[in-house]
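Job type: complex structure
Entries:
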Amino acid sequence: PFEVLVVGGGPAGNAAAIYTIRKGFSTGIAAERFGGQVADTMGIENFISVPYTEGPKLVAQMQQHVGEYDIDLMDRAVAQQLIPAKEAGGMHEVKLSNGASLKARSLILTTGARWRQLGVPGEDEYRNKGVAYCPHCDGPLYKGKRVAVIGGGNSGVEAAIDLANIVGHVTLIEFDSQLRADQVLQDKLRSFGNVDVIVSAQTTEVTGDGAKVTGLTYTDCTSGEGKSVELDGVFVQIGLVPNTEWLKDSGVELSQHGEIVIDDKAATNLPGIFAAGDVTTVPYKQIVIAMGEGSKAGLSAFDYLIRTEPA
Ligand code: FAD
């Protein structure tokens, strides 16, 4: 058993583990894939104090930092079920898909999130070559260029407003017959001269020249006609899905979007169980934020452990 078990090995989980081991608590990390979303990222230009790095390099550095300590890192460990302690100070249990079961007095849940994919041809092929999911991360790469944003909810319209300030031209594409974003955002969007909004449009393919994106095709759902737009980039904004399916019946409170509900000390509704990063209700999903939140969760676990007698 551990004093602290961190579930997830992305920026939030690694930060949490480094904080708790440095407090002298035995700490384990169980991660489906060490590095998390960072492992899928190319250029990173907003990791403050490091002007430019790349995902795989940052993952290697996180692994090196974790390796400086006696942290029990279990990679390819997929959590399937959480059984909370029956009494304060008791052991929480996490069951893994390989049949193993891990116990700890305190848990820090950092299983992250994943961008919902369009699922059309070209999306995978041109990921990081014009297909992007994060306007805060990749917007500046398209300065002066033509991009599309797919998705007319709040995140899509926010992304389109953000990008309209940076890029040459934005085409917002929505499947529904109207945008679903808040009216104030829609009004703001329509105040830009370099934005076109296309509704009732089902994206059918991201097209490219083999090396990078050159446009997309869609079906106009009103006329049934196939149409195309020339582009340098496509931002997919149809939802960020938290990795909380495994927590469904655990008693850990989830928001209506499936995110773990936490307070400003990263505590969940269950004593001794904390959460951090993209999997939580904390807004703005970014590496520096996940690391800050993970550190906060680590300190909260410390606070819990020194105040709670073992059951
Ligand atoms: P994640 O990084 O999602 O890590 C979650 C961890 O939990 C992983 O180890 C995963 O394998 C594990 N896990 C999931 N389910 C289970 C389970 N059931 N059992 C065990 N382990 C599990 N942010 C920036 O700040 N700058 C950027 O330039 C940037 N670019 C990005 C580019 C791309 C393509 C993507 C996808 C994201 C980008 N982001 C960027 C966002 C950033 O990567 C995330 O905000 C950050 O990684 C969140 O960290 P996290 O630790 O909360 O979650």
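Summary: The chain has a mean pLDDT of 97. Residues 212 and 224 are 28 Å apart (CA to CA).
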